[in-house]
Structures are given as structure tokens and as C-alpha cells.
Amino acid sequence: MQPRNMSMSGVVDLAAVKAAGEAKAKAEQARAEAARQGGTPAVSPSNLVIDVDEAGFERDVLQRSTEAPVVVDFWAEWCEPCKQLSPVLERLAREYNGRFVLAKVDVDANQMLMQQFGIQGIPAVFAVVAGQALPLFQGAAPEAQIRQTLDQLIQVAEERFGLTGIAVDADADAAAGAEPQAAPPGPYDALLEAAVRALDADDFAGAAQAYRNVLSDDPGNTEAKLGLAQAELLGRVRDMDAQKVRDDAARRPGDVQAQIAAADLDLVGGHVEDPFGRLVEAVRRTAGEDREAARVRLLELFEVIGPDDVRVTAARSALARVLF
């Protein structure tokens, strides 16, 4: 089990990127051409986060991706999880100091790009590496998991494509009179950081308590709600015998607790539709306390993935049909 990957529903197998050799050759050719022309000038920190539209996509994303990975954040003004995720990505882009560039795409204004990338729900995050597009994750996620995905992306971009990032002139923004980019710490940053550290240490109970502390003051905090659901899930599956859980679920289809355990394990394994379908079916064929237990666990798993994910929307509709 790889618990920190469990919620990144679209995590790509970067080692299986098609045409990797060809893409690497193109990236090397582009860098050689830039060197012949005097090299690529350093960029300002503010240029590490850019707004991209359809007209500028080739210039701003595809060409830049021959120097550093470009992380593409598909968002919309009406999307509440986007408002939680985007500031984290922007801050990390500046912190990583040129190891990747963040390109933000407003899906309402760029429907063609949304269709080309096959976006079905937002927020959705992709990467473009040496001209190759690949999905990273969909929905909001705790910062620890985002960092892990970015670190993997940067490592593979360097090892497979030779992309070492772009130079950043830290003084450029100050010279141009730009406003400082760093935002003041939020009221719950310390608690959220404590939760992330606990997750990294596999202290899922400690992480869950830190997220509960945030929610006690701010019940609508999206990051804390998502983090709590994931920490609780990871805590439940930590000591599971995967083979026994799957065998029990297969042998006892009417045992609600066996189906709940299998659903937890499936979700941690990176599946989404299977555990949702399993629990919807458990709700359909049970009554009383068993039905309520299956329904509540399904709602908890919805929180792990995020309410705006299309798979959650579909499963909610299926649940409503069996309940009513």
C-alpha cells in the first residue's frame, strides 16, 4: 500500500510516458538552440505563475515545457475547492524556485483546452513535460500529497528528459516595483502544517486530531475536511490484511462490515468507482443499522475524493436512487 498516493486519483505512471525518447530529443534540441542564441534569460518570481489561454498555450506551456515541467491548474471562479487548491500551487511554484512553472487555465474561458485535456471535473491538475501532457490529480488534496507528486514529477523530468528547471532572478520583481508575493499566514496554518507533518510520519491519529482542531473553529474549512477524511481512512486501513479483507468481502456479500472494509481498501489502492459501487449496492440490499453504516461510510469516502469530482456526483445520484 502507498498511502500518500491514494487520493491522487489521476496519478500518472511517469515511467510509461509514450514517446519519451522523442520528447527528450526535442527538449535537448530546444535547449541547444537557446544556448546558441545566448541562453535563456532568468525570469522573475512573478513569472513562475502565469495565466494561460488557448491562443498562448503553445508559447506559454508547450515551449516552456522544454525547460521545466509546466503544471497546469484547471480552475473556475465558481469552484470552491479550486479556491483552496490554487493558492497552495501558487505558493509552491514560488517556493520551488523554477523547478516547475504553474500555468492557470480558467475553464469557463477556455472550453477547447478543457475538452482537449478531457477534463470532467475541477480542480484538475496536469503536467506538460517536454511537450508531453500527463494527468497528476483531480480535486483538492493536502499539501503533503501535492509536494510528493511535484517531487516525483521534477525527479522524472530531470532523469528522463534532462529538464533542470529555469533560472530565477529573485531581484527582478523588486526592481520592477512588483508587490511582494508572499501572503501572510492564515489563522490555521500552524495546525494544518502540524497535520501534514503527522501524515508524513504516518501518525494518522495525530493528523486527524489536528484537522479536527481546525474544524472546531472553522467547520467549512475545505482543506481540513479533506485532510480529516483521508487521515481517518489511512488509519483504518493501516493494519488491514488486504488478501483477507478481499476474501471476506467475496465470500460474504451480505456482510456490510466486510464490504465497508473492502471499499476502504479499494479507495486507498487508487480505485474510486469500485468502492462507491460496492457501498451503493450494500445500501440497496440492506436495512436498518447496516444500511445506515454503509451510507455513512460512503459519504465519508465522498469527502476523501472531493464533492466536485464527477465520480462523486454520479455516486451521489446512484445513492439517491436506492434510498428514495
Automatic annotation (TrEMBL):
InterPro entries: Thioredoxin-like_sf (IPR036249), Thioredoxin_CS (IPR017937), Thioredoxin_domain (IPR013766), TPR-like_helical_dom_sf (IPR011990). SUPFAM superfamilies: Thioredoxin-like. Pfam families: Thioredoxin, TPR_19, TPR_20. Residues 21-155 form the Thioredoxin domain. This is Tetratricopeptide repeat protein.
